Every structure is written in C-alpha cells, then in structure tokens.
UniProtKB/TrEMBL annotation, chain A:
Keyword Aminoacyl-tRNA synthetase: no
Pfam families reported for this sequence: ABC_tran
Protein name: ABC transporter ATP-binding protein
Ranges annotated as spanning the membrane: none
TrEMBL record, chain B:
Chief localization: membrane
Keyword Transmembrane: yes
Keywords: Cell membrane, Membrane, Transmembrane, Transmembrane helix, Transport
Protein family membership: Belongs to the ABC-2 integral membrane protein family.
Membrane topology: Multi-pass membrane protein
Source taxonomy: Bacteria, Pseudomonadati, Pseudomonadota, Alphaproteobacteria, Hyphomicrobiales
Subcellular location: Cell inner membrane; Membrane
Protein name per UniProt: Transport permease protein
Length: 327, 253
C-alpha cells in the first residue's frame, strides 16, 4: 500500500490551526428542505482528527444531508460547521480544500475516460496537474488497467472505485464516504476497508455512512446513530462493545421492593420499573460473575424469587431501541 | 482565483467537444454552407445588390451571427445542464471554487467552441463569395463579445431548464426568430417604416448591424449603439448569474 500520496499538505492555507484535535465541528445544524421536510434537527457532533467515524441510520435519517452540508452541496437552514477550523460557508475555499467526498449516488460523466475524470477532480480542487499522483491512486484502487476506458464500459463496483479515486486525487485530509459499500461484493468491500485503514494510517480522518451495523463494528473507531434527523448517540466503539459484552439477569420477586436491602448494595442492582424485579448486570468475560454469591445473599435477605431470566444486549438492539424510542 | 479549477473545467468541456466533433463543428458548418449555396449562389445572383454589396456577400455576417448565437446558447446551456442532469454538478458544488470560476470555465469553453465555429464559417464563406473585411479587429471584437454574452445567456438557460425540452425551447422559440428577424438576410432599411421601428426592439438587430459594419463599413444603426447594446446584454446576463449563485437558485438546496 502506498503511503506517500497522502502526506500532510505543506502550504500554509491547507494547514489547520495547530493544536486543534477536532477536525470537524458540527454545531446545532438543522435542515428543512423547501417543501417542509425536516432532514436534520439541531445536530451537534465533533469529529476527531484521524478517527474513523461511522454514521449509522435507516433510510431517510439525514446522513447524506449532513454530509452535503459539510461539503457545501446543500445550504444548512441553521447552525454552523467548521472543518479544520474553517467555517464551511465563510471560508469555503479552505474548508472544501481539505475534504474529499465519495457520494452515495454514482454520478459520473459516462463517455469520459477514467484517467480524464480523475485528473479533472484534482484540478477542480485546485491542485496542479500531477500524473504521478493520479497513477498511484488508480493503481491503489486497481483501476490502472482501466485508465483509458470510458466510464460507461465499467462495472458498478469499478464505477464506485472511480468515485473513490476522484475523492483521493486531490489528497484530502478529511474523507467522507457515503455508503461506500452499497452494491459492492464481499471481496471489494474488504479491499475498501483496507484502503480506508491505510488512509487512516496516513492521518486522514474518515467519516462513513452505512446501514450495516457489522460494517460500523468492523471498521469504525466511533459510531454515531442518526434517525429522523436527530443524532441519537455517538460513542466509542469500545464503549459500545462493552455494553454489548455485558449480560443482565432479571430476577422476578414475589413481593414488590421499595429499596434495595443494604446487604445487597455491593451488587449494584437496579429495581425494574415494575417494582417487583431486580436487574443484575455483569460481565460474562470477567471470570467471576458473582452470580452464586448474589443468589445466596438474596436468600439470606429473605427475598422470595419466582423467576429468573438472562438477557444479552447487542449493538443491533441498542440501535433498534434508540430508533424505536423515537417513533 | 483557483486557476487549476478553471483550467480543469475548461479542458473537460473542450474534451466533450472533441469527442463529439462531428456534431459540434461539422454540422453547423455544413448547414451554413447550404445557406451559401442556396441564398448566395443560386437565388442570390438574381437579387439586386444591397447597399452596394452583392447579396451573397451581404448575408455572410448575418449567417455567421445566426450560427454563433444558436451555438453559444445551445453549447453553454447543455454544458451546465448535463452535469445537473447526471448529478456531477455536486462535485463542482463541493469544490473550493467560486461561482465566478465556475462560470469562467463553462462559459469560456462554450464561447471558445462557438468562436471557432464562427471562424470556420467565415473561412467557408470565402470559398463561395468574394469577401472583404474593412475592420478586422472590430470584427473579432464583436464576434468574441457575442460568443461570450450569448454563452452566458445559455448558461442561465441551462440552470433554469428543468428538462431537455425546456433546454431546447429557448433556442428554438426565442433565438432563431430573433436572429431571422434581426436582419440576417436583409437590411432593415428594406422594411416598411413601421416594421423598422418594431425591429429596433430586437436586440439581435444591433449585433448583426455592428458585425456587418465591421465587414462593409455600413450598418443599420450606429456602431457605437451596437457596442453599447451588446455590453448591456452582457451586463444583464452577468447580473442574473451573480443572483443565481447568491441564492443557489435551482442548483443548491
Ligand atoms: N433534495 C431534497 N428535497 C427535499 N427533501 C429531501 C431532499 N433530499 C433529501 N430529502 C429528505 O430529507 C430526509 C433525509 O434524507 P437523506 O438523503 O439525508 O437521508 P439518508 O440518511 O442519507 O438516507 P439513505 O440511507 O436512504 O441514503 C429524507 O426525508 C428525504 O426525503
Ligand atoms: Mg444517503
């Protein structure tokens, strides 16, 4: 994998203000399309320099709209976005110069060649012609053999790679991938993830959207969940996975309980909303689960059990609950 | 100024022209050649001279204008409508470039193409009729101004159009009649007085008159007025384009 092509920029205009670890700050951004459909509702999110952030959300959640606002394709109805410290409206030249976008839709000039299309993107983003860079990008995406082919003659997966090549042609510091793996086979998907990781290793910040939890899980450092224009959650994947790793035991009691007896305080139990059940959360991977001692302590506290259920939460479930909770 | 971006847009558009060389250059040249054969050689020889110039020669400036105007409008409107239609406009909108740079790239390419066609037709004309150009610098100046201002106009049409039908409507319903009635084939002095006055509302009259003056030192209106009118038209188009980009009209949601 080639690492030279995405070196830090050297010109002063491209250099984000020093010591700023937030590469992209989204502050209270809203969008109502003409016609009244609310696509984003006061979204705030700080994207960290060098991370891979996955935005997860169902169809119509507002993922593309958010990206489009950051990239300057859609005007926000309210709020403020900065990229590398530059406001995306007032300092659009500097902010957009840092960004590469791989759009969701495959929009390409059908009769142009791969090489011309990618070269065009580099120029459009203000970079001097550099056939060497274009060659490296095309090779990296296995498009070099197709450089003189017209876009129409390419398969769907190749077209998607052309979109990525276009976005990489001008050496962006922040890369947005809007559903990069939609309609892409397993092998190419793995290739793409590898490319994404290599870019991250070169210091590029990556934001990708997806419908697939496994994809977010496989590649992201942080996961954000968007639904109906609201950002429901943003969390480190590790934290989410920890939640994923925990198990719960629900202990149904014969008689409702007002408060947890002091003798049981070390178990950090919760009383279920119904009042006559206790919930015990534990880490099954941690060796000692404390279940045996809990049950004996329950008995000594004089509580009468009628049922016990175990429960394991998955990321999928967290996701579904978040979205259902809003319905 | 992002010169790399202007160059990229310009070259990308020109490459489209070269890809479709036959339809972009050969067909307008061929149809104008047919005009020369029919009006210049065949019928024209039966016509009296107009203002001391043989009819075949007289129609040359008008014919060039006819083609240059329609070509400018259709090239520029298609040039910006097509990216809107296939969605590649999004990349343009997300690039670190100003609206002025976008316009310079697209309009520059469209104007270059119609200018080239104008020159080719001029050269073709010399094969059919004797031609003299009294003021070559003015002639080139008028040609460039016309190519630029009508390419700007075409750019506006390309942004306004919601479908291919609308895209073709304006050249067909507006430009062609205005050019035909603008004195391509006659001097407006040949019209009855009432029509002479009505014709003065047609902006194309000033263009053709000025352009013809640069060939034969005579026009329907003063050359200064021609120049003023075309500059005014240019200014109106520029103003409209500034407004379009400021409001995001039909390009940015
Ligand atoms: N140009 C537009 N005009 C009007 N409404 C729009 C426009 N674009 C998007 N919307 C609406 O805004 C909302 C968010 O759309 P958006 O494309 O951002 O969703 P998304 O999360 O990207 O969905 P998907 O996963 O399907 O790509 C939807 O309700 C959509 O109908
Ligand atoms: Mg989307």
């Amino acid at each position: 994998m080639n690492t030279t092509i995405l070196k830090q920029h050297t010109s002063a205009a491209d250099q984000p203000p020093a010591g700023n670890e937030i590469i992209c700050a989204i502050d209270n951004v809203s969008k109502t399309y003409t016609g009244g459909s609310v696509a984003l509702d006061a979204v705030s999110l700080d994207i960290r320099k060098g991370e891979i952030l996955a935005l997860l959300g169902p169809n119509g959640a507002g993922k593309t709209t958010l990206i489009s606002i950051i990239c300057g394709i859609v005007n926000a109805s309210g709020g403020k976005v900065t990229v590398g410290g530059y406001d995306v409206v007032d300092n659009y030249r500097q902010s957009r110069g840092l960004i590469g976008l791989v759009p969701q839709e495959v929009n390409l000039e059908p009769f142009e060649t791969v090489n011309n299309t990618v070269t065009f993107s580099r120029g459009l983003f203000g970079k001097p012609r550099n056939p060497g860079t274009i060659e490296q990008v095309l090779r990296k995406l296995s498009l070099w053999d197709k450089r003189d082919s017209q876009i129409v003659t390419l398969s769907g997966g190749m077209k998607r790679r052309v979109l990525i090549a276009k976005a990489l042609s001008h050496e962006p510091r922040v890369l947005f991938l809007d559903e990069p793996t939609a309609g892409v086979d397993v092998e190419l998907r793995k290739d793409m993830w590898e490319t994404v990781r290599a870019l991250q290793a070169d210091g590029v910040t990556i934001i990708l959207t997806t419908h697939y939890i496994e994809e977010a899980e496989a590649i992201a450092d942080r996961i954000g969940v968007i639904d109906k224009g609201r950002l429901m959650l943003v969390e480190d994947k590790a934290t989410l996975m920890q939640r994923l790793g925990t198990k719960q035991i629900r202990i149904e009691l014969q008689d409702p309980l007002g408060r947890i007896p002091d003798a049981l305080s070390k178990y950090e139990l919760e009383i279920a909303t119904s009042g006559n059940a206790l919930i015990y959360t534990y880490d099954p991977t941690g060796g000692r689960t404390g279940i045996t001692s809990l049950f004996s302590d329950l008995k000594s506290a004089g509580l009468v059990l009628c049922d016990v259920q175990t429960h394991e939460s998955s990321l999928e479930e967290i996701f579904v609950n978040l979205i259902k909770g809003e319905a | 100024m992002n010169f790399h971006a202007i160059k990229a847009i310009y070259l990308f558009e020109m490459s489209r022209t070269f890809r479709t060389l036959l339809q972009s250059v050969v067909s307008p040249v061929l149809s104008t050649a047919l005009y020369f054969v029919v009006f210049g050689a065949a019928i024209g020889s039966r016509f009296a001279d107009v203002e001391g110039v043989s009819y075949g020669t007289f129609i040359v400036p008008g014919l060039i204008m006819l083609t240059v105007l329609t070509q400018s409008v259709s090239n520029a409107s298609f040039g910006i409508y097509f990216p809107r239609f296939i969605g590649t406009i999004q990349e343009i909108l997300s690039a670190p470039i100003s609206s002025i740079e976008i316009v310079v790239g697209y309009v520059g390419a469209a104007a270059t193409k119609s200018f080239a066609i104008g020159i080719i037709i001029l050269l073709t004309a010399t094969l059919f009729v004797p031609l003299r150009i009294d003021h070559p610098v003015w002639m080139l100046g008028f040609l460039v101004l016309t190519c630029v201002s009508f390419s700007l106009f075409g750019f506006i049409i390309g942004i306004w159009a919601k479908n291919f039908e609308q895209l073709q409507l304006v050249p067909l319903l507006v430009i062609t009649p205005l050019v035909f009635l603008g004195g391509s084939f006659y001097s407006i002095n040949m019209l009855p007085p009432l029509w002479q006055n009505i014709t003065l509302f047609n902006p194309v009259v000033y263009l053709i008159s000025g352009f013809r003056w640069s060939f034969f030192s005579q026009g329907d209106v003063a050359v200064g007025l021609s120049l003023a009118m075309i500059t005014l038209f240019l200014a109106i188009c520029l103003g409209t384009i500034m407004w379009i980009f400021k409001t995001g009209y039909r390009i940015r949601n």
